[in-house]
Amino acid sequence: MSLSILTNLFAKRLATAPEPWVTGSIYEFVAAHISPVSGRFDSRGLQLPDDAAEDGTLRWVDGALDGVLGHHGASEESVATGKQLASLIDRVARTGDQRAAAAAYATLKEASVLGLIDRILELLGERRSPFQPYLSRFALQLATQSADRAPVKVGIALLGAMRLHEHEQIVTVLGKHEEFTLYSAAALANMFEDASERLLALARTVEGWGRIHIVERLVPTRNPRIQQWLRREGFRNSVMYGYLALTAAVHGRLRDVLEQPVVLAVDLAAAGEILGAMIAADGGPALGMNAYADAVPACQLYLAHISKVPPDLLHLESAQQILRYVQADLREEAERLAHGWSEAARVQVTELARHYITRNEWHAVIRAQLASEDARIFDRASRAAQQAGIDAYEWYWRRVCADPQDATAWLLAMDGANSERIDQLVALAERALPLDRIAAGPAAAVALGAQLDVHSCLELVLQRLKDFPGKGMNLIAAGLRSPVIRDRNMAVNALAAADPQSLPAGTKAMIDRALGEETVDEIRTRLIALHDRF
């Protein structure tokens, strides 16, 4: 069948196709779930209306796909699709042709917008596509009446490109959902000569890829409020601090703050996090300490300041990171010198860091903060305890008893398991985890949405049972019937580590049942091998 025939058939189908606009659109969904108190989108357990992923399948975190692909060029296929879409949208702009609108919508639903949008806007500009009355209406419909995310993104971009600032609120509302923040940030920047305060306000309401996208568009800046926000808070995000740490250090003027005789506690704490995040970023997906021109003075000044304030585990962790960075710096001497790391600077930073790390108070501080109910303080104390060789099991045990469905608490408690503690941990897991609900029957799930926590808890217990053969048979039985693949694999691992002769009666029957129910070939193969040992 020729291309012209296919095109004619497609056009005939579109001629009778209903308009794509809906009630219950993505815009209405997002607007309905913005907290009137915080101004944030309340994302707990919520998926966008067009999300086809079912429980048990892997999904991209909101905004992550555009974030990961953001620095890659467009493919030849996306260039061709961009031309096609620009032609359709230009026809809409000139004539209001609803068939062209439907065709553009249908194409957008299947497209990766990030690789298309710049080309579409460029071509529309070259063609001098008129904004009024049709294109502005089409853009507004895409943004507010679409049930699919890609058309919404293009609608936001068009509103911004046409500088329709009367629709600022619509763009901002959509930007509060991380899936659309990148497009809203770009649109706001297009709508206004100086959108920095608007971008700052939006950045405060997001914390994942959305924040990363906005911060990258907030700099460079001479605005003292934005500089302060960058170095105190703006670098923090739920993806990885390293993505924004260097940006915060440079454009938040970190060195200038550290050069002051007295540095406020909030600035000093943030400085420690930024320096640590830059060190962690080196060799990763973002530029880090090796790219920071003020690395030497910033480290020197920071270490000098923390030596004058009460001991803080945040600063201990940062000092340890700085020391490891200096000691593990394998760059050629010429490269180190080009960045200010002379031998004298390396010696001074090493001495300052060691002086702080070897203070006498740390064991007492760690033990005190292990009892904290603040998750961030406890996490830092837990890491410090491991670094200091402190057995923190008693605190981990208290924490898992207080909340037996806290996966992190189980991870830490099971890390401290030994032959004297395992029975206590198994008994708690059998008593506190909903084993009947977990053992719903095998499936191909990798996660179960709101139920993920209890399955993760069981997985973390099962993971260690291989080191204690014969223990936790009720947990293993539940794991074999879990719909989550990792639970079942961990249960098989625990059985495989044991001598079949040492396992209780009924184990073979349990394996037989699991084999009869298993739906995943790889696990069936492992169960068959296990069965053959009995």
Describe the structure using short key phrases:
about 525 residues, mainly alpha, 31 helices, flat, disordered N terminus
Give a written overview of the molecule.
With 534 residues, the chain is mostly helical. It folds into 3 domains: 14-40 and 56-218, no CATH class; 224-359; 417-532, no CATH class. 63% of the residues lie in helices and 0% in strands. The termini are far apart. Mean pLDDT is 89; it is low at 1-17, 53-60 and 71-75.
Number of domains: 3
The residue ranges in which pLDDT falls below 50 over 5 or more consecutive positions are 1-17, 53-60, 71-75
Shape, please? flat
Please outline the major beta sheet: none
How many helices in DSSP terms? 31
Task: Bin the helical content.
Answer: 55-70%
Gyration radius (Cα, Å) is 28 Å
Indicate the structural class: mainly alpha
Number of strands: 0
What is this entry, summarized?
With 534 residues, the chain is an all-alpha fold. Helices cover 63% and strands 0% of the residues.
